[in-house]
Specification:
The chain has one helix at 2-20; strands spanning 22-32, 38-41, 46-48, 65-73, 76-85. With 93 residues, it is an alpha+beta fold. It has a five-stranded mixed barrel.
Length: 93
Amino acid sequence: MLAGLVAVLGFAPAFALAQAQEKMLGGQVQSVDETGTKITLTDGTKLLTPLGSVIRPRALQEGTMVVAMYLEENGDKIVTKLFLRQSEPAPLK
């Protein structure tokens, strides 16, 4: 029984590493480049589309709030999933 527990724990770090590769961030779109392959957020973060994928023209407008799942490859953030997020409602006065 102890050997089974050791075997399971032996795989835990590898499983955690595989899960840790995909990251998430949210932000507001500052711009989408003319090729449709790079999104720049207002904080300066640059997100790249996967090879062969492009963002349709006018699909993302300046100021749109997004949540992105991405993988880091050679220092680049490659988008795996992109969600539009509702912007915060204006405070009532």
